[in-house]
Design brief:
The complex is a heterodimer of chains A (316) and B (248). With 316 residues, chain A is an alpha/beta fold. Chain A is 26% helix and 28% strand. Chain A has a seven-stranded parallel beta sheet with strand order 7-11-6-1-4-5-12, sandwiched between helices. In chain A, strand 8 and strand 9 form a beta hairpin. Chain A is elongated and about 60 Å long. The longest helix of chain B is centred in the first third of the chain and has 17 residues. Chain B has one domain: Rossmann fold. The radius of gyration of chain B is 21 Å and the shape is globular. Chain B is an alpha/beta fold and 248 residues long. At the A-B interface, helix 3, helix 4, strand 7, strand 9 and strand 10 of A face helix 3, helix 4, strand 9, strand 10 and strand 11 of B. The structure holds flavin-adenine dinucleotide and adenosine monophosphate. Adenosine monophosphate (AMP) binds next to helix 1, strand 6, helix 3, strand 8 and helix 4 of chain B.
């Protein structure tokens, strides 16, 4: 028996969210007195990254039929790996696509968007996100098998080195019904959902030509960039940067909001960030009520100073 | 082409969310309900297929009679008929099983949903429907075309996009980008008048055993009040982020 965890990787490394998922699985395993089996699909990332956070076993499925994601085939292959009560995935788009197929295949209980380690494993009691971050639901899940997706950024990665072993395996499933015909991934741009630090800007920037300093600040601290909804709607920034209730929901360690008023729909997507810094020229901007640190001032004056001061800090 | 669009009736995005004093339930007092914003992208794309490719649109909602104004709005936007499954949604599996039954009986070619409901936030119903019906599933969908019995779509993934194809019938979970914001339709007078006479069928739910229940709700933890720094003292903010918050 073990707690199974599906681990996503990209560019030869396990995603940060995969390490979060393993950390989560380790907590569930400790509470239920079992160990952790991580399952990857066509991953070229080193298994050691997973032993370090508590995975005792790492299985890499290498069937040709699993070369690209089709939720039905991935679901079937992962369901076959379950040998206990739990499988943990990350609440990425891929995780959300696969988890329901595992649940139906195993007649299991599906719980998504989970944000805390369980207070009990039998029944399984923990908290999940609800009302787009405006509420938190405590749930109880029964049933022989539970499929759990964990919100990206909700669980801190914890070092928990164990001696592990890795093997490549074949699942034997046939190819799925969805064919991937192409993929575009942004080269070296940090993924917003995976990022620990995010620099975001809104209509206060006046126009897309002024984003240079936002990108510079982000690059300096190793952050991803985001924007408010109107900036994406009017084409100043790509849709993939839009955060909030109708865009991406993120929970980074640091969220810097520049020239964003802090509308309730915006806060719904970023309010669970650990630390929020707001830079806004209007002292009455609602965002200041939901911030930890703030500067009332003109972004065009404050951001360059911020860049300068951070450079000083880095050079110190 | 027959399209089924799954619509969830949710609190307006500006709503303050309050829970009953015992924390056991969501307090609906004074809350305005709207079409789940992600479902609006799905519905609007369906209307495009209706106008350009002669599709016929049914909307389905699992909810009690109080959701009917939201269903009428979907009809006013352009759906041809509606089905309401007369039940309070219990959890994702419960909703998915009701939808799967309707979908099977109606023989739809395309089942469109939103990415997630903004109240339950599961992102689970569409995948469950697809899995129960053994249909191809594409989520995070930002582009969708149908030609004959084949669909091509673009889905968002971490760090990029993926182009996919599959054959119909299929389940698609839509998100922002599937149609542009200015294509979202505000019902006009004619649509509202027509919606009054479009068929809305009420059916009783199928019994479903669920193993998941909500025990209680709470508001997210409040932040202590903001620490403000002067424009002339950005250095102190940087120091605080470095030494106090330890985030840079
Ligand atoms: C159904 C629905 C869903 C929505 N979903 C989302 C969502 O997911 N995400 C989202 O972001 N919004 C969403 N919105 C929109 C939301 O209500 C706000 O309209 C939006 O967030 C405002 O964006 P903003 O803060 O960039 O612009 P504004 O509200 O125009 O605010 C600009 C801010 O910049 C400040 N400013 C101006 N000049 C400067 C300067 N020189 N220096 C510093 N500050 C300056 C101003 O004081 C102001 O506070 C949604 C709305 C609806 C109706
Ligand atoms: N009660 C409901 N009635 C009809 N469709 C629903 C209902 N709940 C959820 N859906 C659909 O499933 C999608 C995902 O919802 P969820 O899994 O709850 O996040 C929504 O965007 C809707 O399209």
């Amino acid at each position: 028996m073990s707690v199974v965890v599906y681990v996503e990787s990209a560019k030869g490394k396990y995603k940060k969210s995969a390490l979060e998922a393993v950390t989560y699985a380790k907590k569930v395993a400790d509470l239920s007195g079992t160990d952790v089996k991580a399952v990857a699909i066509h991953s070229d990332a080193p298994a050691e990254e997973l032993y370090a956070v508590g995975a005792n076993k790492v299985i890499n499925l290498t069937d040709d039929s699993l070369k690209s994601i089709s939720p039905d085939a991935y679901g079937k292959a992962l369901a076959a790996q379950i040998d206990g009560e739990f499988i943990v995935l990350t609440h990425t788009n891929d995780g959300q696509a696969i988890a329901p197929f595992i649940a139906v295949e195993k007649d299991a209980t599906l719980v998504t968007n989970v944000i805390t380690a369980p207070s009990s494993v039998s029944p399984f009691v923990a908290k999940r996100k609800a009302f787009s971050g405006k509420g938190i639901m405590t749930f109880e899940a029964q049933g022989a098998v539970k499929v759990i997706t964990v919100l990206q950024g909700a669980i801190n990665v914890e070092e928990n080195a164990v001696g592990g072993s890795a093997e490549a395996a074949s699942s034997g499933v046939s190819a799925g019904v969805v064919s991937v015909t192409g993929e575009e991934t942004a080269g070296d741009v940090l993924d917003l959902k995976e990022a620990d630090l995010v620099v975001s800007a809104g209509r206060g920037m006046k126009g897309p030509e002024n984003w240079g300093m936002i990108e510079e600040l982000a690059k300096l601290i190793g952050a991803a960039t985001a924007c408010s909804k109107p900036c994406a709607d009017i084409g100043w920034r790509p849709h993939s940067e839009h955060v909030g209730q109708t865009g991406k929901a993120i929970s980074p360690k640091l969220y810097i909001a520049v020239g964003i008023s802090g509308a309730i729909q915006h806060l719904a997507g970023v309010g669970s960030s650990d630390v929020i810094v707001v830079i806004n020229s209007d002292p009455e901007a609602p965002f200041f009520k939901s911030a930890d640190y703030g500067i009332v001032g003109d972004a065009f004056e404050v951001v360059p100073k911020l860049i300068e001061e951070i450079k000083k800090l880095k050079n110190a | 082409m027959k399209i089924l669009v799954c619509i969830s009736s949710v609190p307006d995005t500006t709503s303050k969310i309050n829970f009953s004093a015992d924390g056991k339930s969501f307090d609906k007092t004074g809350v305005q309900f709207v079409i789940n914003p992600h479902d609006e992208f799905a519905l609007t794309r369906a209307v495009w297929f209706q106008e350009k490719q002669g599709a016929n649109i049914t909307v389905v909602t699992i909810g009690d009679a109080s959701v009917e104004p939201v269903i009428r709005k979907a009809l006013a936007i352009g759906a041809d008929q509606a089905i309401r499954v007369n039940a309070e949604a219990e959890d994702s599996l419960y909703v998915a099983k009701q939808i799967a039954k309707i979908a099977q009986e109606g023989g739809y070619d395309l089942i469109l949903t939103g990415r997630e409901s903004i109240d339950y936030n599961a992102g689970a119903v569409p995948g469950l429907v697809a899995s129960i019906l053994k249909m191809p599933f594409v989520n995070g969908c930002v582009k969708l075309e149908v030609e004959g019995s084949t669909l091509t779509a673009t889905r968002e993934i971490d760090g990029g996009k993926q182009n996919v194809s599959a054959s119909l019938p299929a389940v698609i979970a839509a998100q922002k980008g599937l149609v542009s914001e200015d294509e979202l339709k505000i019902p006009n007078m004619r649509g509202i008048m027509q919606a009054r006479t479009k068929p809305l069928t009420v059916v009783e739910p199928e019994a479903v055993n669920t193993n998941l229940k909500a025990i209680s709700f709470e508001a997210p933890p409040a932040r202590s009040s903001v620490k403000l720094f002067d424009v002339s003292d950005v250095a102190s903010l940087v120091r605080a982020l470095n030494q106090e918050a330890k985030v840079i």
